[in-house]
């Protein structure tokens, strides 16, 4: 089937994973700049002081900073209707607490947006995507400090005013629900839970739910303020939330498995969007906080702020589904942020993520039934090891199969009545993996010649999927 007229086909990236130029143009260090490389088996580390001789993947990434014209031209060749990207907060406010923005940073994104608009590509901008000024981590322990709200809204005011005629679609925080999970403390919150150097982005770091959920509350307030501010600057702005959706199935029909599945869905998936879409904390969250001994410190005006700053649309990432079991002896599987029990009915990617296209249809219906606002799939893709053949071609049929199967189910959801705005597959050009810091885990339609240690020519090479996706966009989803 064809999608509706104006459907936003495109690709998605994050500044800290592909932009590079980490200390150029007046940019300050971000939290992502303090994360070392890693592999599937060796966790990335956080080093509050940069270590000489240690590789930090975000410092150069794939150098979009110097190659943006070439890269955007290739997105234009595919026919992108939209391009999801993020702004590096520290390119605009290097330490995070300055009162005036960095003009050189603002000018860079002016140039990027102009280049996108030259090819009729609508920018979709994530305001904060797994990076924040490291200066704010040192000063306030990241989002654990309420002071960050003013720093964030000052940042939003600067970019909303500067780009009000170039950018229409905004997302306040990438995968905001990441803070409901232990892994999210530093990556999503800029928080050093145990305050020590060399903390691993794994279960090796101590967890503190009180700090995480208080930081999340600060992000809710910041997001709501940004929505209200954005609409006052340009009433045509469409400002959305962004959730890392963890589709969960019960392992059995044991009522304990059913209840566990529901609880995981509520806390990990729905809590954040309930607050951002509906404007208040749901009852189940209050019970969870009470039972866990979590006390959210709220100011008198916070409930009114949340109510006044509800988002216009709901966007999310979907890579896989998970299985929830109350039996502690079940064999676990890998996943994006969370793992689960292995599903015997599904195949897995090279990184152990279980591939479930039908879960996307289920998820779209589940979310739309709850909120009835426009939805957008802003991350979906397959991380795989790509091989360059002797003739220079890269035959990534496995990626085409993955994306085709998910788009088919997306179209089924539209037939079910879901209001879907667009689809931006993740990592339209190869970039650094957020979870592992690798280049080996490739997602893109465009191959970038760079390895896990930072070696390579940076040459861009279209893969087989490049022309396939071009055809998908040309036919508006009819030819898959």
From TrEMBL:
Q: Does the entry feature the keyword Hydrolase, yes or no?
A: yes
Query: Which Gene3D superfamilies does this chain map to?
Result: Glycosidases
Superkingdom assignment: Bacteria
InterPro entries per UniProt: GH (IPR017853), GH_1_N_CS (IPR033132), Glyco_hydro_1 (IPR001360)
Quote one Gene Ontology molecular function term: beta-glucosidase activity
Keyword list, A-Z: Glycosidase, Hydrolase
Task: Kindly list the GO CC terms recorded for this protein.
Answer: cytosol
Picking any one GO biological process from the record gives: carbohydrate catabolic process
Q: Where is this region: Disordered?
A: 20-41
Q: Which family does it belong to?
A: Belongs to the glycosyl hydrolase 1 family.
Q: What is this protein called?
A: Beta-glucosidase
């Amino acid at each position: 089937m064809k999608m509706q007229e104006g459907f936003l086909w495109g690709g998605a990236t994050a500044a800290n994973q592909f932009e590079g130029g980490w200390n150029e143009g007046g940019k300050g260090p971000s939290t992502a700049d303090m994360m070392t490389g890693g592999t599937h088996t060796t966790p990335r580390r956080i080093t509050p002081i940069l270590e000489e001789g240690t590789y930090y993947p975000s410092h150069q990434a794939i150098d979009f900073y110097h190659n943006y014209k070439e890269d955007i031209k290739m997105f234009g060749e595919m026919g992108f209707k939209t391009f999801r990207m993020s702004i590096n907060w520290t390119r605009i406010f290097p330490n995070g607490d300055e009162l005036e923005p960095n003009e050189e940073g603002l000018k860079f994104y002016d140039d990027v947006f102009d280049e996108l608009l030259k090819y009729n590509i609508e920018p979709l901008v994530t305001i904060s995507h797994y990076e924040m000024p490291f200066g704010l981590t040192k000063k306030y322990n990241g989002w654990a400090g309420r002071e960050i709200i003013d720093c964030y809204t000052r940042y939003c005011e600067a970019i909303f005013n500067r780009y009000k005629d170039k950018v229409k679609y905004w997302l306040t925080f990438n995968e905001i629900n990441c803070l409901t999970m232990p892994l999210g403390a530093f990556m999503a919150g800029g928080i050093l839970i145990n305050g020590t150097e060399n903390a691993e982005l794994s279960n090796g770091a101590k967890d503190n739910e009180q700090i995480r959920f208080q930081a999340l509350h600060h992000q809710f307030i910041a997001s709501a303020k940004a929505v209200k501010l954005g609409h006052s600057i340009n009433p045509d702005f469409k400002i959305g939330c962004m959730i890392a959706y963890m589709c969960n199935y019960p392992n059995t029909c044991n009522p304990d498995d059913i209840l566990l599945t529901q609880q995981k869905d509520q806390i990990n998936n729905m809590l954040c969007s309930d607050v951002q879409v509906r404007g208040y904390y749901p009852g189940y969250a209050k019970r969870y906080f009470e039972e866990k001994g979590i006390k959210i410190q709220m100011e008198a005006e916070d409930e009114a702020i949340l109510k006044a700053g509800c988002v216009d649309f709901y966007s999310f990432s979907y890579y896989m589904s998970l299985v929830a079991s109350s039996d502690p002896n079940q064999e676990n599987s890998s996943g994006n942020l969370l793992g689960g029990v292995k599903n015997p009915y599904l195949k897995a990617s090279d990184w152990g993520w279980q591939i479930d296209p039908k879960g996307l249809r289920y998820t779209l219906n589940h979310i739309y039934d709850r909120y009835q606002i426009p939805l957008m799939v802003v991350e979906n893709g397959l991380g795989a090891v790509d091989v360059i053949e002797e003739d220079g071609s890269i035959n990534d049929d496995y990626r085409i199969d993955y994306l085709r199967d998910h788009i088919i189910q997306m179209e089924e959801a539209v037939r079910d009545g879901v209001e879907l705005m667009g689809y931006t597959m993740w990592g339209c050009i190869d970039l650094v993996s957020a979870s592992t810091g690798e280049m080996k885990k490739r997602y893109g339609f465009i191959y970038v010649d760079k390895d896990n240690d930072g070696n390579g020519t940076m040459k861009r090479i279209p893969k087989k999927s490049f022309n396939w996706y071009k055809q998908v966009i040309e036919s508006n989803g009819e030819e898959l």
